[in-house]
Amino acid sequence: MTTASALDPAQRQVLINLGDRYVVFGPFPGLREPVRFSPETDSDVLPRVADAGQGDEARIAHTLRVAGMKRRATPTERIEDGDVALLDDDGNRVLIDIKVRQRDPNGRDFDHALQRLTDATSRGLTLEVWFFNIERLNLVIARLDRLRLQIDRLTPLDVWERTAEGVFNRARVVEQADDWVHRIGTLYDDVRAWLGDRPNLRCEQSRTVTMSEEIMQRYAVTDREIPVLDVLDADQVVASFVPRGLWLIGSWGRIDVITRDRTHVLLALGGQGNLSWRLVTSPDDRRQTVPFDKSALLALVS
Amino acid sequence: MSRITDTQRAYDRLVQLLDQEIRKRSGSTKDLEQFRETLDVAFYLLGWSQFEYLVRQEAGDLIDERARAQSVEGHAWRFLQDNLKALPVRRRLDLIFHTNPKARGQLDKDYEFRNEAAHNYRSLPKEAKDISAWLQGLEELVDNF
Q: Which candidate, A12, A96, A21, places its Cα nearest to that of A53?
């Protein structure tokens, strides 16, 4: 049996469990092959985890799988040589040392990894140090390539949660974010149309806010720039529509309308597919709303 | 009325000022949104610290009162009185809210968010985004101690 990896580490696909989520990491950009793990065949229905951040290193070591490679318990090597041993089809063995962080690895991490890699190589072992950033979901692999430190970065190809009710995956988050952007655009079109007969007022869409919600980070969905709509009277902004968030308790999105005297709240209420914008009328009770229509808009900007 | 009300008023005013800065386009919208997130975390932690002080006082009063009892339970309460400093916040909340499990359960979640924000560098989750309403809710709990 040799101890050199035949499978290019930069092209691997890796599945791990992070408590309530499964994450598949893979090469970026340009996938050579489709995602080789799926919720139905490669994940279990898991009980809810109170604190998904607890025991991450042990959980990852226990659940880690690499497409095209088999797991093998560390055989004769001392346990500190690695957390997981992998074998490819040719019998090449790679030891994996798992490090879990809530950030990307820093210089000290790489120095320490280099020391571990050099030591392992001198003893005839093939070791890789894998740094999982569980906050922003990425995997950095440190290994030796002809005695030089080589760093490979794998990004999340898919993230899913599987419960008794079904599978919630990254694509659903992307879809909901797309729908949010579309709904905002439609609202802005309505506002422009409603102000069409007010020649003193004009709309401008030159600014953005960053949409970076917690669920997007959990499912590795890229931040988005969402437009702000300003309503101007001459060169004075009389109202700014600022999208505040999509995934909220009790609504399907919130946009603040900041006028000269105060901030008004617009909520998307109703069932999925039947949403409508409602203007909150009482600052003390979000349940008191009226439909947001032309007359409500004109009352805000007058 | 406690200081939490003053905290809520200060928060509302600062949010209003930030919103007006956004409307007037007097700074980067993204920066201002970031300031708002930081403000939210700061006031969440401030609200909790003020609430914790009041919880500590209330739990102390409650224990002092029961420790006067000349019964077997009195000994238990006096033991607790002697070890009051070691009593964690969640246990103090148990004492105060033992007849209000709904409030107690919500405070447990809130305390988790507080710990995540204070010790684990986390932003506030969506359940804790409405700081003004949350501060108002704390004030109502304090009023009903």
A: A21
